[in-house]
Amino acid sequence: MGMWASLDAMWEMPAEKRIFGAVLLFSWTVYLWETFLAQRQRRIYKTTTHVPPELGQIMDSETFEKSRLYQLDKSTFSFWSGLYSEIEGTLILLFGGIPYLWRLSGRFCGYAGFGSEYEITQSLVFLLLATLFSALTGLPWSLYNTFVIEEKHGFNQQTLGFFMKDAIKKFIVTQCILLPVSSLLLYIIKIGGDYFFIYAWLFTLVVSLVLVTIYADYIAPLFDKFTPLPEGKLKQEIEVMAKSIDFPLTKVYVVEGSKRSSHSNAYFYGFFKNKRIVLFDTLLEEYSVLNKDIQEDSGMEPRSGEEGDNEEIKPKVKNKKQGCKNEEVLAMNSFLCFFLFAVLIGRKELFGAFGFYDSQPTLIGLLIIFQFIFSPYNEVLSFCLTVLSRRFEFQADAFAKKLGKAKDLYSALIKLNKDNLGFPVSDWLFSMWHYSHPPLLERLQNLFCA
After folding, report:
1. Is 304 left (phi over 0), alpha (psi -120 to 50) or beta?
2. pLDDT digits (tens, 9 = 90+) for 90-125
3. What angle is formed at CA 424 by the lines to CA 423 and CA 430, rounded to 5 degrees?
4. CA-CA distance, 312 to 168, in Å (whole number)?
5. Secondary structure of 273-300 in the HEC alphabet?
């Protein structure tokens, strides 16, 4: 009886308070769910202290223990940083941080001679202050993660000066992209009439394609050194494989990632007939600065032409299928979100729920609807994309197997897992919810199943 009375009382509350309460409730529900999953996985890290029998042939005890301790430290860091983030977000909502920042932005605009009619200008100031606040509050966590956890486990290669310079540069580049794009988007929404959501969707689609096209040529080189992969056996084999599967490869780059971390990675980008592959130098023995230092210290000559040279080819093959499919899904999602935004933007109670009683700024509407109102939908979409991505990973592994590369992929996956101190044992529920790539053991078993 008491529960039903509480529900009745809740529905008798003003719509603004119901919306605000629902947003907070869902936010903490997601946080508690994520914490529950993280604790399940943490229990795996703490109790699995010996290499499981099925991994005995592919992982030694020393590497297993290193990866276990590394993941434990990351788990602890994730718990405290996640708790801080949730409390910070809650306090911002409870104490009216968003309307306060909007009013502060208005005052700054007023000092510069811009009145309240210059909503887009005020929106840009709001974005600048919001991203500055986010960068400053996130800085201590980023410093601890880099110079304590990553340093402790041998991955960090940055100096404090390099880190700070990188952070400042990243902030400036972000503003140079975010502010012009946001101003144009807001202008399109303002003048677009009844079908503004179509124009806004097309605009964001074009911007995404442009950014994907120019990223490695103009944006990424601001942070890391990109060089074309030199002529040689590896480049030749990548090009031959790309041609054999009709992958429209135009360039292959090596990025000097070893200046910031010894983690290895690779990715491809581009669209239509213009695809490019980027390999981290830490992925390639003969190109890594770290490996060169080791070779010079030990008097070794860099090795080339060995069996492992083509082991990095398959991840590019698998990412081809994953990336295109996810982009298609996200494009449709973007259109749906803008359509729903058009439906909801006129609801004054949405603005009132977050402290905007006298005005309904377009940027604030985007923030409220996309970040808060759509949050349940975003969680479901995220999970579906994770499931889809895992499915594509298995399909890509099967494709590599069909090409006769199962043995090479098997070896490459083990090396990548070892180099990055990935822990091969996962809680099934944590893995299902979070892992866009299947756990190592599942992929290895799948490679050689009938």
Report:
1. beta
2. 999 999 999 999 999 999 999 999 988 899 999 999
3. 85
4. 33
5. CEEEEEEEHHHCCCCCHHHHHHHHHHCC
The pTM of the full predicted model, rounded to 2 decimals, is 0.84
Q: At residue 159, does pLDDT exceed 60?
A: yes
Residue 414: per-residue pLDDT: 85
Would you say 23 and 375 are in contact if contact means Cβ atoms under 8 Å apart? yes
Instruction: Tokens for 62, please give them.
Output: 């020393």
Write the CB contacts of 148 (distance below 8 Å, at least 6 apart in sequence): none
Residue pointed to by tokens 């081809």: 320
Cα–Cα distance, 102 to 346 (Å, whole number)? 19
- Least reliable range by pLDDT among 24-38, 161-175, 206-220, 310-324: 310-324
Residue type, 181: V
Instruction: Exactly one of 397, 408, 427, 442 is catalytic; name it.
Output: 397
**Amino acid (1-letter code) at residue 298:** S
User: In 10 A of CB 343, how many CB atoms?
Assistant: 11
Give the span between the Cα atoms of 166 and 155, in whole angstroms. 17
* C-beta of residue 405 within 8 angstroms of C-beta of residue 314: yes
239 catalytic? Reply is no
- 3-class DSSP assignment, residue 444: helix
One-letter identity of residue 337? C
Alpha-carbon torsion (60, 65, 70, 74), positive or negative: positive
Q: What is the pLDDT of residue 303?
A: 37
Q: Specify the amino acid at residue 285.
A: E
Contact (CB, 8 A) for 156 and 147: yes
Decide if 166 is catalytic. Answer: no
Q: How confident is the model at residue 162 (pLDDT cuts 50, 70, 90)?
A: very high
Render 313-344 in DSSP notation, one character per residue: HHHHHHHHHHHHHHHHHHHHHHHHHHHHHHHH
Q: Is 393 annotated as a binding residue?
A: yes
Average pLDDT of every residue of the chain: 85
More confidently predicted of 180 and 425: 180
pLDDT at 323 over 70: no
Question: Which has the minimum average pLDDT: 77-81, 214-218, 364-368?
Answer: 214-218
Report the C-alpha gap between 360 and 323 in whole angstroms. 37
Distance CA 302, CA 291 (A): 8
Joined tokens for residue 313: 């080819």
Report the phi/psi class of residue 128: left, alpha or beta, with left for phi > 0 and alpha for psi in -120 to 50.
Answer: alpha
Helix (H) or strand (E) holding 383: helix 375-402
Mean pLDDT for the stretch of residues 181-206: 94
